[in-house]
Amino acid sequence: MEREEAMLSASSMYYLQDIKMETIANHLHMSRSSVSRLLRDARESGLVEITLRPTPTRGPGLAKKIEACFGIETHVVPVADLADEAERLDHVARATAKIVTGWFDSDMIMGVAWGTTLAAIARHLGKKPTRGSAIVQLNGAANVRTSGVEYAGNLIARFGEAFDAQVHLFPVPAFFDFAETRNAMWSERSIVRVLEYQRRADIALFSIGAIAGEVPSHVYSAGYLETSDIQTLDKEGIVGDVCTIFLREDGTYEDLSMNARATGPTPEELRSIPRRICGVAGDNKVVPLLAALRAGAITDLVVDEQTATKLVEHVMQLKDGAASAEEIALQTDHSEPLVSSS
């Protein structure tokens, strides 16, 4: 009877009150391993029954459609229908952190951008010691109001700590005032060293920047752009950015004036990195995400179910007289992608 009572007490505290094993052990005056055995016996005896009731999800079907359309690996994260955008972001950040931790290993280089989503991913990183690895910042962070160094530096340092990796910061502004200044800085040896690490990266990790939304992108909400810059974005039809390189909805970016002053890698430069992971959550990210996919910037997409649904719906609605290749891909199954990501 004493053991059954102990099993009941331990199980109630662990499963119903969400109390940690160490606390339960102290309360019952026993070791943590004894509590673990009580919980095991409670399950085996039928005192505790664990039932999984997965909620219906469209994730696998959505992932298959996006993969067929754009030729990328897609991980659709199930979230509750009533989840707000902050919750959706947290779920995507957790999933992305887990995936990145599994992929990154010794003697590898990972390029990391900064922003709201990347900060969330950094908070969910687990510890995975590696040897001979490096983390390199992909785009500058300083602006006219703050140095940006502390914000980006802390974020990149969190990745370095998680993997015991060497950290290489990128000590330049997010945007130069003049394209000529940027071009001159790209000849400086200290900058060339960081750019070389970026080019040698095995993995690039970034998100999508959106101009507005419930959870605004850091580049648009933290003083990186002047009023005149925002007006230029609107005039040139820009819908968002990847690593502070601005994109139109059709994925073009080469002739945009703001990009001549930006410090992040272009989609073309990103394509030299074998694995390019993008974590995305939020309705406001749908259009810029499509732009990034069309630009071929992404090889692996981690996206919440609602955003994935809206992406598919948006592509289906883009009718210009006849169905586009993207629309056809979303309506049929293909063994080969119609839109290449490289």
UniProtKB/TrEMBL annotation:
<dbReference type="InterPro" id="IPR036388">
    <property type="entry name" value="WH-like_DNA-bd_sf"/>
</dbReference>
<dbReference type="InterPro" id="IPR007324">
    <property type="entry name" value="Sugar-bd_dom_put"/>
</dbReference>
<protein>
    <submittedName>
        <fullName>Sugar-binding domain-containing protein</fullName>
    </submittedName>
</protein>
<comment type="similarity">
    <text>Belongs to the SorC transcriptional regulatory family.</text>
</comment>
<keyword id="KW-0804">Transcription</keyword>
<feature type="domain" description="Sugar-binding">
    <location>
        <begin position="62"/>
        <end position="312"/>
    </location>
</feature>
<dbReference type="Pfam" id="PF04198">
    <property type="entry name" value="Sugar-bind"/>
</dbReference>
<keyword id="KW-0238">DNA-binding</keyword>
<dbReference type="InterPro" id="IPR051054">
    <property type="entry name" value="SorC_transcr_regulators"/>
</dbReference>
<dbReference type="InterPro" id="IPR037171">
    <property type="entry name" value="NagB/RpiA_transferase-like"/>
</dbReference>
<keyword id="KW-0805">Transcription regulation</keyword>
